[in-house]
Design a protein that fits this description.
Layout lengths: L3 H17 L6 E6 L2 E7 L2 H4 L6 H13 L7 E7 L3 H9 L4 E6 L24 E4 L3 H16 L3
Parallel strand pairs: 3-4, 4-5
Antiparallel strand pairs: 1-2, 1-3
Length: 152
């Protein structure tokens, strides 16, 4: 079975794909029983959809494949700490575990700005861990924004 680092490396490939389309480089994939069941990358600009974050795209992909909006027993790998919208979707999809690479200091909803997954009022608990390939993810994001600003 692939390791956390191997799955996150695939998520980073997806993030690079997002960057190649001018999107913020974030990639995500959903895994169950060691098999990738959904994947996606940021696409709000190209899809004209403010909800098309990498996590949402990956959840939609898996949900379509299984004809079910609930994805129990799955792990979501994402290259950047999810925002509040994505945390809500992760909880509603009944994802078992979240693994993210880099923190998102401005809008991260796991540890950076709020601890949404620690709230007791949700009817589903999501285990989480951070830091898998964090440096690679942070470097990709910094490079993207530097190039976008023309300060590379």
């Amino acid at each position: 079975m692939a390791s956390n680092a191997e799955f996150m490396a695939r998520a980073l490939e997806l993030a690079r794909e997002a960057a190649s389309h001018g999107e913020v480089p974030v990639g995500a994939l959903l895994v169950r029983n060691g098999v990738i069941i959904g994947q996606g990358y940021n696409a709000p600009i190209s899809s004209n959809d403010p909800t098309a974050h990498a996590e949402i795209v990956a959840l939609r992909d898996a949900s379509r494949r299984f004809a079910n909006y609930r994805l129990p027993g799955s792990t979501l790998y994402v290259t950047l700490e999810p925002c509040t919208m994505c945390i809500g979707a992760i909880i509603h999809a009944r994802v078992e575990r979240l693994v993210f690479a880099a923190r998102e200091p401005r809008a991260g909803a796991v540890v950076s700005q709020t601890n949404a997954l620690d709230e007791t009022f949700y009817n589903h608990r999501v285990q989480w861990e951070e830091g898998v390939l964090a440096e690679e993810s942070a470097t990709l994001l910094k490079t993207f924004f530097r190039e976008r600003r023309g300060t590379a």
